[in-house]
Every structure is written in C-alpha cells, then in structure tokens.
Write a structure and sequence with these properties.
By secondary structure, the chain is an alpha/beta fold. The chain has two domains: 295 residues, no CATH class; 111 residues, Glutaredoxin, CATH 3.40.30.10. Strand 4 and strand 5 form a beta hairpin.
C-alpha cells in the first residue's frame, strides 16, 4: 500500500520559485492550502466523484441526522487520510532520496490502468450494470464501494483525492511547493489543511445534516439522475484510458474505449430501454454541436483551427545557451500528455493570438520538454527552476539569459510581455 502511494506526485503541479515561496508566511500558506483544497472540488477530475456522492445524498434524505452526519464524516475522513498518506510518502521519499513531485503516478501505466478499471467499475455500479464475473468475494467488495455504507463513503473520499492530482487548482501549487520544501511539521500542517479544504463541503453537511431535508425526495426519477452521474464517471474512465495511449498505442486505446462504451450503452438499453440510449446519444451530439458553434463564434479570440505548426525542438539547456548568445529568444514549454493544465495552456494561449504568431517569428526558438514518461533530464530541469511538476514555461533571451519563469496558468499578454522583455525589445 505504501508503494502505491509513493507514486502519487507529478501531474499538473503548480509550484512557485523558491524566493516567492519563502516570502510567504506559514499562516498565509495554510490559508492558501485551505482555499486550494476547496477549489479542487469544482475541478473536472473531481466532479464525477462528487456527482456520485450527490446521488448518494439524494438517497440520504430519509435517514436520521446521526446517520447522515456519519456518511459525510466518512467521506471527509477518506479525503484527509489520502492527504496524510501523501505527506507520509513525501517523508519516505526525502529519507530515501527519491524524486519529490506532485502526481508522478500518471507516469506509471499500471497506476493509470488500475484507476481506469476502478472508475470503470464505479461507472458500471452507478448505472446498475455491475455484472462483471469476478470472484464472489472481489465482486462483492467492489460492488459495495458505491453504496451508502461508511466504508463506501470513505473510499469515495479517497478516490476523489486521487483523481484531483491532475487537476490542480492555481492556489494549490503554491501550498504544495512550500510543503515539499518545508520542515516535517510545516508539511504535515499544509497537507492537513489541503485535505480540510477539499473536505469542507462534506464537513459542512456533517455539521448541518438537517440541510439534507431540503434535497429532493428519492423516487423513480433518481434512476435518470444516476444515469447522468454514471455518464460523468464514464467520461473520467475514458479520460484515464486516453492517458494509456503513450504507453500502449493510440489504436489499442481507442479499441478498448469503444468496446467499453458500446458495452455500457448495450447494457443501458437492456435495463433502461432503447429510448434512454437514444436520449444519451442525442445529448452527446447536442453538446458536441454546441461546443463547435460556440467555438465558431469566438474566432475573434481563437485561431481556427488550433493546429500546432510550431517548430518544436527537444529541450536541451546547452543549446539554449547557444541560441541566447546568438541573440535569439527561446520559449521552453515543459508538459505531459496527462497534464490538463498543460493542455489548457497550449490550446487556450500558446496556439492562439497573439502568442501563436509571435512564436512563429524567425528569431524565436520553441523547445518542448515531454514529461509523459519519467525523464531524469527534465526532472533536473524542473528542480533547477524550483518546480515539482508540470506545466513549466520559461523564456530565455539576451535580456534574460538565466530564464524568466512564467505563471503556471498562462496569459497571452503576459507571454508577449515576457518575449519582448527577454529579447530586450523597447516595446515592453
């Protein structure tokens, strides 16, 4: 179990340079950790698990206050225990001299496969389709994880934490960066408040269990709601499967995803009727069309299509020095296929105006560091810039030979300003 949690550090980490971190008071960092943990609840990686929890909440409306309080305390405890295990893992990594980062688990295909299978079982269970023929004991164990038992709620809390790591919130990064370089006591405090922040919604209902009475009463309509939440879980399963493509190939990943989706739709049609499947497909088509329409209406701000025609070179620090001596500007982007924040930066900023045409200029060199797989070279580069994960964006130039580190969440105007400053442009 310890080895499992030793791998829980890298995705979408958000860390600040050491001088910025050290300027923060420990009480300020604790406040940031509390806020960062709270924001994690609305991140897309966590929402499906919260949807499953909300489904359980609807069924709790007929229970007494003591039982309701116990369920929410169990979920909150699962979240806190997960963060304490992460803190414990950091201590082990420090002692053994291992690499410390936030979310390295997504560099491990075994972990990704485990999470995909588990969330897939959650999906099937939530949709009432759990008929996978495993051993009786294992099937019973898995099937109970989505119910209203105390253990089920505890494990839901733990899995919410595991899914949160690739969707780190901006405030989370500063706290994580401080914690990974702080004393043991300070680190435990920060991880505790990260967990408390994420657990706040559940603790709120534990303190005020009577609020559940305002939730809609359970009834046949809940079967439809469960399908919605099940589809949210399905999206998480497919996303996890997509993370396997760098390891097992795109074709095999697509085949697995299609077979799993077809199986679920077939079982939904068998249990809930063909009309339900038709409705699901219609909703998917509607949402996809809406996204395309909205995208076409925002061409003023977005390059269409968002195609990457930049001449990316592999990250090489010695080459960077040579380019800077030649008076060129070097734009370094370190990311990973499983990093949602990285994809947001690339699609929403790097491949859009005004950054995209600026990076295509002849005097600008673009370099890419890929941390999808473990890489000692890239890990050392991250450490040099006091980061504990991706994304990391650095701009070099005659005016910034040591590199200018940009914020984790990129902004087009800030990137342009950094490029101009790095090359010593008067237009700053």
């Amino acid at each position: 179990m310890t080895l499992f949690f030793l791998s829980l550090f890298s995705v979408s980490a958000i860390a600040q340079p050491t001088d910025e971190i050290q300027s923060n008071n420990i009480f300020n960092i604790i406040g940031i950790a509390l806020l960062g943990g709270l924001i994690l609840n609305i991140m897309p990686c966590v929402l499906p698990v919260l949807g499953m929890k909300l489904s359980n909440m609807l069924a709790l409306s007929s229970m007494n206050s003591q039982s309701i309080r116990l369920q929410f305390l169990a979920s909150a405890s699962g979240i806190l225990v997960s963060f304490w295990l992460l803190a414990f893992s950091v201590l082990i990594l420090r002692i053994t001299g291992g690499m410390i980062g936030w979310g390295i688990q997504y560099q491990n295909p075994l972990f990704i496969g485990f999470m995909a299978i588990t969330i897939g079982l959650f999906t099937a269970n939530l949709l009432g389709l759990f008929e996978i023929q495993l051993s009786h004991r294992f099937s019973t164990f898995i099937a109970q994880k989505g119910d209203n038992s105390t253990l089920g709620n505890f494990i839901q809390g733990m899995f919410a934490t595991l899914l949160a790591t690739p969707c780190s919130a901006p405030f989370l990064g500063t706290a994580i960066a401080f914690a990974l370089g702080a004393s043991t006591l300070e680190m435990l405090l920060i991880f505790t408040f990260l967990g408390l922040g994420m657990a706040l919604p559940w603790l709120f209902f534990a303190v005020f269990p009577h609020l559940i009475s305002y939730m809609p009463k359970s009834g046949p309509w809940m079967n439809k709601v469960k399908i919605v939440f099940g589809l949210m879980m399905l999206s998480s399963t497919l996303w996890l499967l997509s993370l396997l493509s760098p390891f097992i190939g795109v074709l095999l990943t697509v085949i697995i995803a299609l077979l799993f989706s077809i199986y679920l739709l077939y079982k939904i049609a068998h249990i809930h009727g063909k009309n339900t499947v038709i409705t699901i497909i219609a909703v998917i088509i509607f949402l996809s069309s809406s996204i395309l329409i909205v995208g076409s209406m925002t061409t003023k701000y977005w390059v269409t299509p968002t195609e990457d025609n930049l001449r990316w070179e592999s990250l090489d620090e010695r080459t960077i020095d040579d380019y800077v001596k030649q008076g060129k500007t070097v734009f370094v982007n370190v990311s990973a296929d499983w990093c949602i924040t990285c994809k947001t930066n690339k699609i929403g900023v790097i491949l859009q105006n005004p950054v995209y045409p600026a990076l295509q200029q002849e005097n600008v060199i673009t370099m890419q560091g890929d941390w999808t797989h473990p890489s000692h070279k890239i890990t050392e580069y991250l450490k040099k810039h006091q980061r504990y994960g991706v994304p990391l964006t650095v701009v070099y130039g005659p005016n910034t030979p040591q590199g200018l580190t940009l914020p984790v969440l990129l902004d087009g105007d800030e990137v342009i300003h950094a490029l101009n400053y790095a090359k010593g442009s008067s237009n700053q």
